[in-house]
Amino acid sequence: MKRFTAAIICFIVLGLTASALAEPIKLAEGTPVKVTLLESLMSGQGKPGDEVLYELREDLYGPNHELLAAKGTHALGAIITTKKASLLGGSGKLEISCDYTTAVDGTRIPLRSELKKRGKEQRAGAVLPVGPGIGAFYVKLSKSVQVKEGTEFTVYVDQEVVVDPSKPAPAAAVNPATGGSYYVTISPQAFQSLPQRVASALRLGPSDKVTIAVSEFQLSNAEGAVQMDRAVSRDACGNAAAALENMKGFTVVRSDQWESAVKELKLDTSKPLDEAAAREVARKVNAKYVLVGVLTNRPNVVGVEARLLDVASGSAVCTIITDAAKVR
């Protein structure tokens, strides 16, 4: 009996030790991710940019069976093209994307539709065909395209990300009115116009290239709104970077380069960096511009104010103010 008890204690101690020593895991580019559509869609309904919601249909594990993203976690995308079938016999058209999901530690995992990565001309996210053979179907009389709720897709990790399974999942926001809790993030479509606005402000020529860094956004809450988790800021940072990466002429500083510079400069990482600190990090990574901003949680939307700063002078090159839809 004593030997059996000792064996159990040894097993528990070893398990705890292994967990305590767990290191961040690299989730490789091209890793398949299986998602399920959570709403039915029809060609001609909605408009480009409208959100499309999915969830992971199975757990996503690391190389040693570490849980990196849990089954049921939401993934977000958008309608890319939607065209109603014409009375003259023209077929309807529907293209949707699956842009990203979230890891167990709150890290944003960007997604694409193909195993092989294309050049920058390809839209960020996964543009998914919705035709016969993958669960969608055509209505023969109208030639409209419908994709049903519950349709399953396989998408792929768009770039390598680092996930720390030992970190707790982001704390849920608490609604003081009801006592209920939920996790709030914002739609990636909030940054859809960002690349064009930045390119216009910088007056880039066809052959011009600039390096831009993206810092975490500051968090603010309007009176009566729930407290946002910092993961919302990280999501916004990832969404903005993904939008800029898809524009010719922009080179976006990778998140691992940014984090390495922050550590080297020994800056306070307990909260998003202020503008002065963000410029300091941007100088360290040789970026000419840095995108900073503020997210303000309001009862129905999240206000987004993004500012592109000249790293050398600190002056604002352009400011974008918009409201972003919430996803809970």
What can you see in these coordinates?
The relative contact order is 0.13. The longest helix has 19 residues, at 2-20. Strands 18, 19, 20, 21, 22, 23 and 24 form a seven-stranded mixed beta sheet that branches. The chain has a six-stranded antiparallel β-barrel with strand order 2-4-7-9-10-14. Strands 3-13-12 form a three-stranded antiparallel beta sheet, with no helix packed on it. It is an alpha+beta fold. The chain has helices spanning 2-20, 194-202, 230-245, 255-264, 275-284, and strands at 25-27, 32-37, 41-42, 51-56, 60-61, 67-69, 74-83, 93-98, 100-102, 108-112, 126-128, 137-139, 144-147, 152-157, 161-163, 173-174, 181-182, 185-186, 210-214, 218-221, 250-252, 289-297, 301-310, 316-327. It folds into two domains: 25-163, Type IV secretion system, VirB10/TraB/TrbI (Lipocalin, Beta Barrel); 173-327, Rossmann fold, CATH 3.40.50.10610.
Chain-wise SSE layout:
Layout: H1 2-20, E1 25-27, E2 32-37, E3 41-42, E4 51-56, E5 60-61, E6 67-69, E7 74-83, E8 93-98, E9 100-102, E10 108-112, E11 126-128, E12 137-139, E13 144-147, E14 152-157, E15 161-163, E16 173-174, E17 181-182, E18 185-186, H2 194-202, E19 210-214, E20 218-221, H3 230-245, E21 250-252, H4 255-264, H5 275-284, E22 289-297, E23 301-310, E24 316-327
Parallel strand pairs: 19-21, 19-22, 20-22
Antiparallel strand pairs: 1-15, 2-4, 2-14, 3-13, 4-7, 5-6, 7-8, 7-9, 8-11, 9-10, 10-14, 12-13, 16-17, 18-24, 22-23, 23-24
